[in-house]
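To assess whether the prediction recovers the assembly geometry, we first specified each molecular entity separately, as shown.
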Amino acid sequence: MDMKRDYYEDIQLFESKVVLFWTIAFLAFLFSLPLYTSSYYLFLFNIIMVHVIMAVGLNILMGYTGQISLGHAGFFAIGAYGTALLMTKLQLPFLLALPLAGFIAAFFGFILGLPALRLEGPYLAIASMGFGLTIMHVIGRWEVFGGRMGIQAPPLDLGFPQLGLSWVVKSDMGKYYLILIITILLVVAARNIMKTRVGRSFVAIRDSDIAAEVIGINLTRYKTLSFMVSSFYTGVAGGLFGFVLGFFDPFTFTLLLSIIFLVMVVVGGLGSIMGSIAGAALITYLQYSLLKNVGEKPVIGDLLTAISKKWFTVIGLENFNSIILGLIMLAIIIFEPLGIFGIWIRLKKYWKTWPF
Amino acid sequence: MIGQLIIEGLAIGACYGLFGIAVVIIYKTSEVVNFAQGEMAMMSTFVAYHILTFYQYPFWLAYILTMVFAVLLGIVVEFIFLRPAKNPNLLGLIVITLGAEMLLMGLASWKWGAEQKEFTLPFSTLKTYEPVPGLIVNDWAIAVFIAAAILMILLFLFFKYTKLGVAMRATQQNKHAAKIMGVRVERVFSLAWGFSSFIGATAAMFFAGRATLDPAYMMEPFMRAFAAAVLGGLMSIPGIVIGGELLGLIENLFGYVWPEWKPIVAFVVIVLVLCVRPSGLFAKHYVKKV
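The predicted structure of the complete assembly is given in tokenized form:
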């Protein structure tokens, strides 16, 4: 199924007219969303899109290049703090500060990529985890970054305030359109990168790095490049996240955040851009909406409160979402290692070959 | 002053070494880095806390009950989560243990709340002696040294002379050959998890006695213990303890000079060691199998 017959079939953006139709329908839905949703749901969608950018970036590293990172909260923090500080301290306009923060994150990605040349598997996981924790501690201890108190994101100004051209975006709707456009650009870019020579080198490294080296792929260049691309995406996502949240401190970017990022990619499906989008949306929805204040939800809330009163503590019920996330992680690996993307492939195969 | 720092560093280093042994026993037997190790130990320490504060049992009885719980917890985690996965790859194994970590952390903070708690050991850090002038040793450090020494001797005897220990070593060396020789490899995995959970819980109680107890308190000690284990080469038990002592010393001496950067030292050490000598200070270089 889905056999590619020539090169141009492989590199085209839309596989068929059906895909094109549904993509346009989905985009039309997204662009008209503020017409029929409340401000709270726009906030939720903003966070989902920020996480989509991050998950696509992390998937380039984990799903396509086969490296493991448990330190992406660090890049996320670099992006958030970088954008905010470049705007407040250096007075740079937002449209310059955001990509610049992304490039700073990419530089740190390059630094983390260097040890990754010699490490693999659990060692790389631990080293990247150490990197993420180091970033968190450094930010928490340095006065420039606001220390433990955290910092306030500056007003989101799309113009050039230095030249007198000011265009401040205040509402959730304005932020929604801004983030939506950036997300679409970055997701399409990621999809296209994967069809180029660079993207195919990444996949070759994932499948076997020794074989890739033998056929002439420069491992040093492409492994660090993968880290850089991935951390650039995460940095940009972090920069936008700062504006969505409005206020952040070092404890926003803990190890748990890195683990949640990893869950998004694994739940969505490794090596699939559409999977990352679905995974990021699902996990963010669970975390920010469905499982937040679970004790006050209509049916399940009373049951859980009763259980809490009998055997657990009511005050601890707010940590219920990490139980669900843990169970999702375990279930995905045990029952469906390819994640949502794997389920989608199976459904598609079932319908296409239906009577058999 | 410097002697004081060295004693403190050696004591906390022995803790890292102990916890590192727990990590390595699982890593060596089943080739899984158990990211849930810290949380398994945290759960056991909370059980000890519960027994001590709610039932008011004496400490040693609570300790024995906790250790029974820890062993069962390790076996259950292996049996429920690791075994059903069909040929998981490396990332799959990491995700499974991270999932178990999240699950245990959620359960513990649901049961006991996320705020910090006081965990009192019978060996307090406040009760001090001064055997040599200028060198102050506290009860906690003495207990750590004794516990580490006893556990090391017991482990040595266990791996050398008991049937189970020999089976574990055989599984470590070659899983398939061990299976042919009649070792039940799956059962050895379960027991290794239980065993490692027991050692980890002992170390975690020492950590809790020094600081406070909350559901996230074992995350960073786990990192440091893994750093210690990597420093020692993830191979022999004495190597890991030496690695732990080294890390404790480096951290404490560094922390004396630049106190505000103390939490970062371990991570810098781990990254440096992994870059310069990925197989550790005391191990032979390994060759990757293609």
